[in-house]
Amino acid sequence: MWLQSFVHAFMWRQQASTVHTFPALIANFFPSCHVFGSCSSYVWTALPLVCLILFFRTVANYLWKKRFDEKQAAVFAAVMVCLASWMQYYPVLCPRHTYWAIAPMIGVFAYFFWDLLKNENAFYRSVVSLLAMALLFQADITDRIQEGK
Q: Which of 44, 58, 73, 118 could lock onto 68 through a cystine, CB 3.0 to 4.6 A?
């Protein structure tokens, strides 16, 4: 177990990763829109940024109120899962790792827009959340359709 989980993983990381400096590490966690080919998608950076915004907003809210209600605790738990999943971008930034990493972030992204419009009716909030997701994933969906043809 020690060899497989720690020694071989460390050796693989040293061989596979080209990230050795802080700017390169930041570029790894916030990839440019052209990392995975010609697709002009910002999904790889937008989803983690939304999670970071929700994280800091939830922490700031806790610092001011000194308590969490059930909704805030659920949001904080979901955001922590997303931020932990985001670590899959490292050490090798590839489509497989990033697709798995952003999977839990999709729901948090939809919630972000749902929560932004908390004073509106449910139908309007749902439509805006759906449109935000459609616009964000539009380039990836179009790219996959083109590759499928």
A: 73
Separation of alpha carbons 29 and 48, rounded Å: 9
Place of tokens 């950076």: 45
15 CA to centre of own chain:
26
List the structure tokens of 22. 């802080």
Please indicate, yes or no, whether the overall pTM of this predicted structure exceeds 0.70.
yes
| Close Cβ partners of 29 (under 8 Å, ≥ 6 residues apart) | 48, 86, 89, 90
How distant, in Å, are the alpha carbons of 1, 11, 100, 107, 143 from that of 4?
5, 10, 22, 33, 37
Query: Where do the structural domains in the chain lie, given as residue ranges?
Result: 21-148
DSSP 8-state class, residue 66:
S
pLDDT tens per residue, range 90-112: 777 777 788 889 999 999 999 99
